[in-house]
């Protein structure tokens, strides 16, 4: 018997899932998608390991999903692509038998019209269907002051909670560069969050809804770097969790749900410690892009004599090669490598068999 229902989870179901993760010592992979191949690969991997999963889209991923030729000056294509992707996930998740969290990734104040468009659509959708399209959205206002960051998040959580949508916020900055967000030259001090900042946000948002998570910076950097170039301070999560427990007089409860950004290339030890300190979600993008690339690369290497020409291959000069250059072949090769790599991340996150 499954622990969570198949399909897109939202509202109390989302909170129950994250509570289960904290209680049982695992975290969910939050995997960025850019099209049906990556969406299907994410859910396929989750079905293989019998665990819930998080499908997430950035504004760039949404734009690509809708079509890069589309105008996007007010995030209209990003929103349309995300809505299209969400419809796709709602359509197939139950067929795979997988509980899915649908999420959007980093959104700065500059691009907040993207989230406004998604919420406008979902408020009408909720009125008609009694549920939202997305489980949660992320606001990354870490470039603003703490007070402004949290103040804006309060307003959005108030709006989201009315239609059963959760919120993820960011405190401190994740370094590096990803999908058009470049923090590669940011002041190193901003890569580390103070426990009092975490509790400030937790206290403010808790008064509106318990359905939120916090991406606290502890040296995280987007991308993959050689060992020693990224210095994680996972103890920041432990200290923040303990600080919140002290303020609430609730020792051992792990009240804060943390999110691990910039997790590509992290050691198993750091991942395990972060989960112990309350991380319930780890973002994956860079490693997954590389895995998909490797699948396509290896396909071309294996069949290079069959895809060089439409007709003629080592088996005969007049033989057609259509079955080799069919785009579905190389895309499926990318998907297969993507799924294999994601299975490894499920294992790293202690997230195998979590829907049994």
TrEMBL record:
Residues where Zn(2+) 2 binds: 140, 170
Similarity comment: Belongs to the class II fructose-bisphosphate aldolase family.
A Pfam short name: F_bP_aldolase
Keyword field contains Lyase: yes
Catalytic residue list: 105
Catalyses which reaction(s): beta-D-fructose 1,6-bisphosphate = D-glyceraldehyde 3-phosphate + dihydroxyacetone phosphate
CDD domains, A to Z: FBP_aldolase_IIA
Protein name as it appears in the record: Fructose-bisphosphate aldolase
Domain of life according to the entry: Bacteria
UniProt pathway: Carbohydrate degradation; glycolysis; D-glyceraldehyde 3-phosphate and glycerone phosphate from D-glucose: step 4/4
Annotated residues for binding of dihydroxyacetone phosphate: 223, 262-264, 283-286
Alphabetical list of InterPro entries matching this protein: Aldolase_TIM (IPR013785), FBA_II (IPR000771), Fruct_bisP_bact (IPR006411)
Biological process (GO), any one: glycolytic process
Cofactor(s) the record lists: Zn(2+)
Annotated GO CC locations: cytosol
EC number per UniProt: 4.1.2.13
UniProt-recorded Gene Ontology molecular function terms: fructose-bisphosphate aldolase activity; zinc ion binding
Keyword Glycosyltransferase on entry: no
Record's keyword terms, sorted: Glycolysis, Lyase, Metal-binding, Zinc
Function: Catalyzes the aldol condensation of dihydroxyacetone phosphate (DHAP or glycerone-phosphate) with glyceraldehyde 3-phosphate (G3P) to form fructose 1,6-bisphosphate (FBP) in gluconeogenesis and the reverse reaction in glycolysis.
Cofactor note: Binds 2 Zn(2+) ions per subunit. One is catalytic and the other provides a structural contribution.
Organism: uncultured Thiotrichaceae bacterium
Positions that bind Zn(2+) 1: 106, 222, 261
């Amino acid at each position: 018997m499954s622990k969570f229902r198949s399909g897109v989870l939202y509202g109390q179901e989302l909170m129950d899932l994250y509570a289960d993760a904290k209680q049982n010592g695992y975290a969910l992979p939050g995997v960025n998608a850019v099209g049906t191949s990556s969406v299907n690969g994410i859910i396929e991997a989750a079905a293989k390991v019998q665990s819930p999963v998080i499908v997430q889209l950035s504004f760039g991923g949404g734009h690509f999903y809708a079509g890069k030729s589309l105008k996007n000056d007010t995030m209209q294509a990003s929103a349309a692509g995300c809505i299209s992707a969400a419809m796709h996930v709602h359509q197939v998740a139950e067929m795979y038998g997988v509980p899915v969290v649908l999420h959007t990734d980093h959104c700065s104040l500059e691009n907040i019209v993207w989230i406004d468009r998604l919420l406008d659509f979902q408020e009408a959708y909720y009125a008609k269907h009694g549920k939202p399209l997305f489980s949660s959205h992320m606001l990354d206002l870490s470039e603003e002051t703490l007070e402004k960051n949290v103040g804006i998040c309060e307003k959005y959580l108030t709006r989201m909670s009315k239609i059963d949508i959760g919120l993820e916020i960011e405190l401190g900055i994740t370094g590096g560069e990803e999908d058009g967000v470049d923090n590669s030259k940011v002041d190193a001090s901003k890569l580390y969050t103070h426990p009092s900042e975490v509790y400030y946000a937790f206290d403010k948002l808790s008064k509106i809804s318990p359905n939120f998570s916090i991406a606290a910076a502890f040296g995280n950097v987007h991308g993959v770097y050689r060992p020693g170039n990224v210095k994680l301070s996972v103890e920041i999560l432990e200290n923040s969790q303990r600080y919140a427990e002290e303020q609430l007089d609730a020792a051992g409860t792990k009240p804060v749900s943390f999110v691990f950004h910039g997790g590509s290339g992290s050691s198993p030890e750091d991942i395990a410690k972060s989960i112990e300190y309350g991380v319930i979600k780890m973002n994956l993008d860079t490693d997954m892009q590389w895995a998909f690339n490797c699948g396509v690369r290896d396909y071309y290497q294996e069949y290079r004599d069959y895809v060089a020409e439409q007709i003629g291959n080592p088996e005969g000069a007049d033989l057609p090669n259509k079955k080799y250059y069919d785009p579905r072949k190389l895309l499926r090769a990318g998907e297969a490598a993507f799924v294999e790599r994601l299975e490894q991340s499920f294992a790293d996150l202690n997230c195998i068999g979590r829907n049994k």
